Prior knowledge:
heterodimer; A: alpha/beta; Rossmann fold; 6-stranded parallel beta sheet; 6 helices; 6 strands; 39% helix; 18% strand; B: alpha/beta
Amino acid sequence: MKVVIFGCGRTGSTLALELARLGHQITVIEQNPNALVRLGENHGCEVVIGSGLEDHVLESAGIREADVFFAATRGDNSNLMAGQVVKLKYNVPKICIKCADPLRAEAYRKMGYLCVTPSLLTAGLMRDWLLGTPYETIDVYNVLLDSLKV
Amino acid sequence: MYMILVGGGNVGVQLARRLLMVGNEVLLLEKDVPNAGRLARLLGEENVMLGDGCEMLVQRRAGFGRADVVIAVTGEDEDNLVVCQMAKYVWHVDRVLARVNDPDHEKLFLQVGIDNTVSATGIIYSLLEQQVMPDSLLPVGALARGNVEVVETKLTARSPVVGKRVRDLPMPGQTNIVWLLRHEHGQMVEGDTILEAGDTVVALVPRDGAEQLRTLFGNR
């Protein structure tokens, strides 16, 4: 698959390397050239320096041919906006958005976007490890914190 | 009216000031601690709140649920977009308004249902266009979620419509010249009105008819 990943932090770089290892065609978009060290050498990914909110950057990353787009920067709002640009302007079929704020993530899930909240996944996995219960799906962990709901 | 502003930069502060002056209940949200303190001294403690206006918990404390208007005026388009979407879809605020810093983003805001945007770059460009290129067709506003544009143009002697009766103009469908300014006097336009050089005319045109109208007026 042709995969575009916006953000080369811990999440983005790990995902890029893993999917590249599995033989997929990866392009990473990252604003800060220093962050690219996370990919190491011989990573086999294409790299575009710039912001994934800008059309020309997305286009030079080959967004028009992409099968899937991951928004994985540390900025929730950048991720949410990039995900919407990619869906509405470029019609990429699969989009996954990292959103650290669980409440914001829920609001955008209701608008039809797949949002993944790392803290909820981690907490859920830790809970299941402790209890010895089977690990669940993203959707189950994503709605863990009912107490936070407004 | 209760108006919440997000972003305590120059735009937010000046806007808050004016809205307070005309008697509105105003709350300005600012996430930077020192700046929020400064703004509280400037605008009054009760009119400023420290917090990230994109956070739902902050939005609840700020009273998004009873706001009549939410205006996002930070310098970051992604923040303004999220504030407006949350205000509209989570809190069902009637009127939301976003500042758009990068004019390339205006279309996206429109597509996701944020139909009231203000772009300083866009406005300055229009004014500049008016000064430098007096023939051009200028967007003044949008109606019907952007499907209908309100445009104005100043007719020069070169314009092919000068001397013609409005009813005889081959206008694009659903397009109306509604008003004109002639020698500093505004007047409604009727079928019999004959256009003159120097007239500033205002027209309503569906988005896909703008190009045809531009050709009709002889705009470049």
